[in-house]
Amino acid sequence: MKHVGRRTDAKDVVAKEQLDAYVPMAVGSTYAKTDLMADAPVGRWVSYLTVTGGGTDWPTALTVAYWNVLTFGLGSRTTQFAQEAFQTGVEVGGIFVRAKHDSTWTPWKRLASHAEAVASVSGGVMDCAIANTFSAAISANTTLSFSNIPSGAYSCVLEINHTGGAITMPSGTVWVGGTPIFTAGTRHLIFFQRATLGTAGWYASALAGFAA
């Protein structure tokens, strides 16, 4: 029996390109911090590893991190997901997403979840890139602040176990009716919303003085 080969034409090539753009396949190599996630191949998932801080267009600057990145779409309309799969603590499992319009990528956005872990505050700094819920044990004078503040809307809640010292709010914090009194020996909940109008800063409200 004579076998007749199937001719590959332009339509086949286009169909394969479209399929590749939607069906994720693995790329065997692992990329380093010197590699841009923007250069990740479309229709593939790839991995990025660092032990010395993040790359210039990575979602966060974690010192040690392993990112699984999936890029999909067609041409100048591309979506990219990145999940942190190595760092211990609140960061592990965090999912970030961004999109490309023409040649410009949007900022990374972290996807919040209902089962999100609570991030412990170190040195009074709340890292907006890793959480929306924070906790702090304060026993001495402490100045609160934010890092990695996103350009868009952002809100968070801070739970404080206050055993001693004075608490200073982040720069630009505004209250309705004046600053609450935070008494040592009690617990507090403070809610922050990044202001996008007026003189910017942070809107804040508090439930202070819960029994310890």
Calculate Rg over CA atoms: 23 Å
Q: Segments where pLDDT lies below 50 for 5+ residues?
A: 1-6
Share in β-strands: 35-45%
Global mean pLDDT: 84
Helix content: under 10%
Note the total helix count.
Answer: 1
Shape: elongated
Task: Pick out its properties.
212 residues; disordered N terminus; mainly beta; 6-stranded mixed sheet; elongated
Secondary-structure map:
Blueprint: H1 10-22, E1 25-31, E2 44-50, E3 65-74, E4 77-84, E5 95-101, E6 104-105, E7 109-110, E8 119-120, E9 125-127, E10 133-138, E11 142-143, E12 145-147, E13 155-162, E14 167-168, E15 173-174, E16 186-194, E17 202-211
Q: Can you summarize this structure?
A:
Helices cover 6% and strands 42% of the residues. It is mainly beta.
Account of the 3D structure:
The protein has 212 residues and is mostly beta strands. The chain has 1 helix and 17 strands. Strands 1, 2, 3, 4, 5, 6 and 7 form a 7-stranded mixed sheet that branches. Strands 8-10-13-16-17-15 form a 6-stranded mixed sheet, with no helix packed on it. The chain is elongated, with a radius of gyration of 23 Å.
